[in-house]
């Protein structure tokens, strides 16, 4: 094949594979949304709904760490902020559920951009500590103010009467329907992140991670693209918080501690930050594994020990996480199949 034809052919092949992988990702998530309600009971549908919602937040964490190598330990706080806005918009303003979700995502996006400003000067442990202090600050504030529950006033709190539940969208009134609804949101967010990775933003993030000097030399605006990444991760967290609020009907301020942000980051690393399935695995580890242990009569908090060992294993021997290891295993099996190399380029 002439040299001038090799590059267009390779680009066309890469584009074809990218479209196939995107279709596989969307199809897999939607298939989960369709199949699980037929197999699981009511308890597990609710548990797995929370897992899918948390997978959206984990996808944002994976974006920051996988693309830029930045450790943000305030993502669970942003999740709570998105839930607060969604509850306030739903109760106080009577907005449709989808608008409440988007409002929660956009507010968390703005807060995430502000949280990302220290990343311009701080890296590694120092950035992690600063963002963790932000999460601690949110924990203090939300324990004092609580989440809106249908009351009057700016905080929307109810005192002396029953708390109101956030109404679900008309298309997802049952638990099974709401599980499918959250699966659709997860697919949309994953597509949004993947499209960012494959465009100018993704190339700029890759240059920044390689070295800021090289990125500046290539004409990359460090401030713009780092802030962009933090904003997108914040949007993911806000959407996740709003969907959690819709699933339960309310949120409890005691469930949004700084330690939860650390756990979200740790399990995202264990799940895998370089593959979309890592976010799904992180969501399952956060909710499904403790629930499974409880079903077997084991204290769910023992999962913390397993998670610590898994994180140590991921950092030392498996930086690609569980998802990366599974993807590598699938590729190895595929290469051993008969005729696997027939379509290879000469």
From TrEMBL:
It is a multi-pass membrane protein. GO terms for cellular component: plasma membrane. One of its GO terms (molecular function) is branched-chain amino acid transmembrane transporter activity. The chain crosses the membrane at residues 20-40, 52-79, 99-117, 124-142, 178-195, 229-249, 261-286, 298-316. Its main location: membrane. Keywords: Cell membrane, Membrane, Transmembrane, Transmembrane helix. The keyword Transcription regulation does not apply. The keyword Transmembrane helix applies. It comes from the Bacteria. It is found in: Cell membrane. This is Branched-chain amino acid ABC transporter permease. It comes from Variovorax gossypii. The lineage of its organism: Bacteria, Pseudomonadati, Pseudomonadota, Betaproteobacteria, Burkholderiales.
């Amino acid at each position: 094949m002439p040299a001038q034809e090799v590059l267009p052919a390779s680009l066309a092949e890469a584009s074809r594979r990218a479209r196939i992988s995107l279709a596989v990702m969307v199809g897999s998530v939607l298939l989960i949304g369709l199949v699980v309600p037929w197999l699981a009971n009511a308890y597990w549908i609710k548990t797995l709904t929370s897992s899918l919602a948390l997978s959206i937040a984990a996808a944002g964490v994976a974006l920051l760490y996988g693309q830029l190598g930045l450790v943000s330990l305030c993502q669970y706080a942003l999740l709570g902020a998105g839930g607060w806005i969604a509850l306030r918009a739903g109760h106080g303003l009577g907005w449709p559920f989808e608008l409440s979700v988007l409002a929660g995502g956009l507010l968390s996006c703005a807060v995430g951009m502000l949280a990302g400003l220290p990343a311009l000067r701080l890296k590694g442990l120092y950035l992690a500590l600063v963002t963790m202090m932000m999460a601690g600050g949110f924990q203090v504030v939300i324990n004092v103010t609580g989440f809106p529950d249908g009351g009057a006033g700016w905080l929307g709190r109810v005192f002396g009467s029953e708390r109101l539940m956030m109404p679900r969208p008309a298309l997802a009134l049952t638990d099974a329907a709401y599980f499918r609804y959250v699966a659709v949101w997860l697919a949309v967010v994953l597509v949004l992140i993947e499209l960012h990775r494959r465009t100018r933003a993704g190339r700029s993030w890759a240059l920044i991670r390689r070295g800021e000097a090289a990125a500046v030399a290539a004409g990359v605006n460090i401030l713009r693209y780092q802030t962009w990444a933090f904003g997108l991760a914040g949007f993911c967290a806000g959407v996740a918080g709003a969907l959690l609020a819709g699933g339960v009907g309310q949120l409890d301020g005691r469930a949004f501690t700084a330690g939860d942000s650390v756990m979200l980051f740790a399990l995202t690393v264990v799940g895998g930050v370089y593959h979309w399935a890592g976010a799904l695995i992180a969501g399952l580890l956060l909710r499904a594994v403790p629930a499974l242990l409880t079903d077997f009569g084991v204290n769910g908090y023992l999962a913390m020990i397993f998670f610590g060992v898994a994180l140590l294993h991921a950092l030392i021997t498996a930086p690609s996480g569980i998802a990366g290891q599974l993807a590598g295993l699938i590729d190895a099996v595929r290469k051993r199949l008969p005729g696997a190399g027939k379509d290879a380029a000469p």
